[in-house]
């Protein structure tokens, strides 16, 4: 934790057993990922002590994190791992929503405008994706 006025480190958070690969702050929570195969959710107490309130174990090292809303404006968390799969989790439950498969490890994910998002992977590929609304159950389309 850095003091933005003095640029001095005022606190170090410890909790991962390997390299920390990503940090995302959202709605008062801090999400961290690591090559130790975990995602940790941190929350600041009244005394500004950050504590781990949830740890999610993955089978592979986590390379990055990115949160955004899907086409239905539901919060989704992207978790690319070093097995070349990006897992999509619904928040706050962390239930799996889907997967994106890549030729190489996805190193970065960024939100874009109008339901777009972007991935960059270790094969030097930049891919543009677009969320699609699910068809309504029981509805039909036609002419």
UniProtKB/TrEMBL annotation:
WD repeats lie at residues 13-42. It holds the Pfam family WD40. Transmembrane segments: none annotated. It comes from the Eukaryota. Keywords: WD repeat. PANTHER family: PTHR44489, ZINC FINGER CCCH DOMAIN-CONTAINING PROTEIN 59-RELATED (PTHR44489:SF14). This is Uncharacterized protein.
């Amino acid at each position: 934790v850095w003091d933005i006025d003095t640029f001095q480190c005022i606190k170090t958070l410890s909790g991962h057993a390997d390299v920390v690969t990503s940090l995302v702050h959202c709605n008062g929570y801090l999400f961290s990922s690591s090559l130790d195969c975990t995602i940790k959710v941190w929350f600041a107490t009244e005394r500004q002590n950050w504590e781990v309130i949830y740890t999610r174990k993955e089978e592979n090292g986590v390379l990055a994190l990115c949160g955004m809303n899907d086409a239905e404006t539901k919060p989704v968390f992207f978790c690319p791992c070093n097995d070349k799969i990006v897992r999509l989790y619904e928040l706050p439950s962390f239930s799996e929503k889907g997967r994106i498969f890549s030729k190489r490890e996805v190193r970065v994910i960024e939100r874009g405008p109008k339901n777009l998002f972007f991935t960059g992977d270790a094969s030097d590929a930049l891919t543009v994706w677009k969320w699609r609304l699910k068809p309504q159950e029981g509805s039909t389309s036609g002419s």
